[in-house]
Amino acid sequence: MTLSRRISNPYLETPSNKIYGESSSCAGRALRNIFTLQASDLIKDRVYLTGICRRSCVGSELVDWLLEQCPFVKCRSTAVGVWQLLLDMGIILSVDRQLYFQDSHAFYQFSADECTYLFCEFEKEEAWKNGVKLLLQLLPLSPPRIDMCNLPDQKIEDTAETNAEILARLTSAVQRELAAVIALKARKSAIHQNEENSSQEIRGLEELKDTSDAQAGVLCKLQGRDDIGRIELVQKLARENCQFLQADRKALEKAEQVDDGGGGERAREAAGAALVLRKVWSRSPAPERRGRYVVVSGTPEKILEHLLSDLHLEAAQDKETETLLDDFLLTYTVFMTTDDLCQALLRHYCAKNHQGKEDDSDVSCRKRKVLHLVSQWTSLYKDWLHEDEHLKQFLKTIYRNVLDDVYEYPVLEKDLKEFQKILGMHRRHTVDEYSPHRKNKTFFHQFSVKENWLQQRGTMNETEEIFCRVYITEHSYVSVKAQVSTSAQEILKIVAEKIQYPEEELALVTVSFSGEKHELQPNDLAISKSLESSSRMFVYRKDLTDSLNPFSENEELQQRSVRILGINTWDLALELTNFDWSLFNAIHEQELIYFTFSRQGSAENTENLSLLLQRCNEVQLWVATEILLCSQLCKRVQLVKKFIKIAAHCKAQRNLNSFFAIVMGLNTASVSRLSQTWEKIPGKFKKLFTELESLTDPSLNHKAYRDAFKKMKSPKIPFMPLLLKDVTFIHEGNKTFLDNLVNFEKLHMIADTVRSLRHCRNNQFGNEVPSKEHHELKPYVHHLHVIDNQQALFELSHRIEPRV
């Protein structure tokens, strides 16, 4: 077993020359030097998880080479021991940061340190084999290779999750399935052990099989309240050969009515509607500890009913109730439509006094709880709800009901004033629907996984902003962020400035995939026509006869100037951060839910999220494009250094989205293969880039990134693809419906992940702006010029640095 985490070990904390001696270190360096000379073909740039691993070799090839060159090394295990000594000495380094050398397809790199002695006994041509023989003598003296499972006295410095913490993150359904598997294996193991013990026990088992269930050994009847998720209980019952029986449902309900306080889980059923709850205990000191129930699964109606009963109006909500309310409002579109929710809330608000069991205070309390939920709903979604027709009608209806009830229940007067504010906000949205000052917010739509119901979106608002691609060549485009109402002339002006070409000599043309061309007139709405899925928008040149001529790739390469070299790196990173923040701040939490659950093309419901994801991809392509379009080696080296500094500044400004994009852009195959360029990068920049790369290491579920991001204070911009991966992982690993009940534990985990956006946006970025000396910086960052074809990028890469 390999050890992937750092362990407190006396051997690891002592310099290698003190353990093995200085001569052994010289022998190891001599072996390294002769390998780099004789087997340079085995040292290559290799594709790794985080990108390209430069000048690395494979563990199994190192072993093969040593066996071939040194006949006195008799077996592979001995050769592995020699390379292990070099790994302990730090002469070779594991790319995976493993402590033990692996005779497999593991990657290793050589250190650059040299011998400090003026006259080294192993520096001669054939003397290196004597060094190998010296290393062989040290093998019996090397530290023992201890597996992780045999380290009772070793302290793992990285805080590891205990088994209990891991199990706590699983839903009840997964815990039950896991417990059933363990019980089955434990039962088989117990039976197998009994069969081997004595033939008498075998005969006993055969007799037990022939007896009736009523006399078949020990029977253990588990109630629904028993915590079957306890692994120890399941294993114990299996060893004792207990059988699991399904408890009688009526008896279970009767027992719960008698004693409601002792169970870990309980179910309530009535007329086909069910709600499954689990009892949890507060973290208060023992005398003040009290249990409460959290929702595990249920029907939408019962979940809403439990939520309303849990609300407290006079006192502040406890954390569990706030979480339940927030979970419900964030994820309700998964299992019910907005119209269904509106109708359910109206039923609860207008419910009559049932058989005289409620007094006036209970009725008014129920009505106030409904109004409180509506208030929280509109507060959470803000202007997302004002386009929904069902909600408009619902707000009007419930407002009239409150006006009618305020005379009978004066306590509703305060809620009426709050509701008038909500309705006033809604009316403002209706009046200012097309205000030019309206923020870039996508429309709200709801969907239901169960019914596969999606509401179609209406026409786009004129002030809505999108990214528009204007192609210069077949594979190169300028990304323009503009409103839907932007004219062709305005788009053309932006593109002309970007490519430094006279505007009057250019024309915008839509080209369909069939080759049909249509020139856009200055006052045409360019974006609405270019958004058709069957066409692209190109910029063409006009000649004296007004005929249209496309740009060629060679012309673009010759005319392009490297403007980025004259821009301050901090200002450029700051402009990237400001632009990314405007995109990130416009994302609604509901968009992540839509992105995860909607199986159909629902880009219209996740527009702000899609903009940020598209931006991340374009920044990555922008880095590669700028470097590969620079034909001069010296300027290309300056560009790589520039991008490394920009990535470091983005990290310092807590913009992890652009940080990841720039690092990935530098690690693309077409850029990382530029060996002449990378060889001229100073060691200081190489070291900085290695440190930045370590933050993108995907091992241990991106632990390096998660730890660093957690320590950053808000505001901060996360790497959105990883956040979406977390939500998708929860979605794919758990069923949304269990026995026709909503799996609310799954929705809670998803909502908990989505809520991380709030922490990132607790504060706003400062008003720091780039220096005024770069007036072209903002349009440069907002409208990136990129090549989006990987084949074209590789052709450029081989053109500026041909393969040797």
From TrEMBL:
GO terms for biological process: Ras protein signal transduction. Gene3D superfamilies: Phosphatidylinositol 3-kinase Catalytic Subunit, Chain A, domain 1, Ras guanine-nucleotide exchange factors catalytic domain, Son of sevenless (SoS) protein Chain: S domain 1, Winged helix-like DNA-binding domain superfamily/Winged helix DNA-binding domain. InterPro entries: DEP_dom (IPR000591), RA_dom (IPR000159), Ras-like_GEF (IPR008937), Ras-like_Gua-exchang_fac_N (IPR000651), Ras_G-nucl-exch_fac_CS (IPR019804), Ras_GEF_dom_sf (IPR023578), RASGEF_cat_dom (IPR001895), RASGEF_cat_dom_sf (IPR036964). Signal peptide: none annotated. GO terms for molecular function: guanyl-nucleotide exchange factor activity. It holds the Pfam family RasGEF_N. It comes from the Eukaryota. SMART domains: DEP, RasGEF, RasGEFN. GO terms for cellular component: plasma membrane. This is Rap guanine nucleotide exchange factor 5.
